[in-house]
Design a protein that fits this description.
elongated
Length: about 90
């Protein structure tokens, strides 16, 4: 919201179109599942001993990075979804 005029606007101009927002939400949720399953798969392989000792730390590092990325994708997708619903309600479009 612009402080002086009270006008509502999206910080990123690309999100002005509802179709783009819906696509971004869908892609972020898909990215969440991809990263979460990859992180869980790497953690499982590391725990089961399927990865050699000298590259075990790399598997754990990628597993942690993937889990953090999955959390970010889920959080940002949910925030964007909630912002889309709130903006529609405030503007009387729903």
């Amino acid at each position: 919201m612009h402080d002086e005029t009270g006008e509502l606007y999206w910080r990123l101009k690309v999100f002005r179109m509802a179709r783009i927002r819906k696509l971004a939400i869908w892609l972020l949720h898909a990215l969440y599942f991809i990263l979460a399953f990859a992180a869980l798969g790497l953690a499982y392989l590391a725990l089961r001993g399927r990865i050699e000792e000298n590259s075990l730390w790399v598997a754990w590092m990628y597993s942690i990075i993937g889990a953090c990325g999955a959390f970010f994708a889920l959080f940002y997708g949910s925030a964007l979804s909630d912002a889309d619903k709130a903006a529609r309600r405030w503007l009387g479009m729903q």
